[in-house]
Design the sequence.
């Protein structure tokens, strides 16, 4: 009888060695969310060409534009003896059209309207507070 009991125990143990426990509900796995990197700002040149007699004495004026690729940017330029800096923003509801305004260190101001044909290429017009007007080309 002891042999039969031992044999039954060995057979039961051998039969259970291939079994494993399966959970009824899987253990939740925490999802890893990797945030997207912010868009990289692009810096490029803009050129302002005189378009009236008031602007002619200044000649072609260069500017530096930094586009944050989120519909805003910053620019700096030197017109005659005055340094200008300002901000450019896209117009509400338009992915291409925008305005730029800058203040000069001697009290003048510059207003521009532009249309971007790509993220780094565009055209527009600028008006200096003294009445000088320029045609603007953004990018190269």
Sequence:
């Amino acid at each position: 009888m002891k042999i039969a009991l031992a044999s039954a125990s060995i057979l039961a143990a051998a039969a259970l060695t291939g079994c494993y426990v399966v959970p009824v509900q899987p253990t939740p796995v925490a999802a890893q969310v990797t945030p997207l990197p912010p868009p990289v700002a692009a810096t490029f040149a803009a050129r302002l060409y005189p378009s009236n007699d008031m602007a002619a004495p200044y000649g072609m004026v260069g500017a530096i534009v930094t586009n944050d690729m989120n519909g805003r940017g910053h620019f700096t330029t030197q017109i005659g003896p005055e340094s200008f800096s300002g901000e450019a923003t896209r117009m509400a509801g338009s992915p291409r059209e925008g305005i730029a305004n800058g203040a000069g260190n001697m009290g003048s101001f510059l207003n521009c309207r532009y249309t971007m044909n790509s993220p780094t290429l565009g055209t527009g017009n600028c008006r200096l507070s003294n009445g000088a007007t320029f045609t603007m080309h953004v990018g190269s």
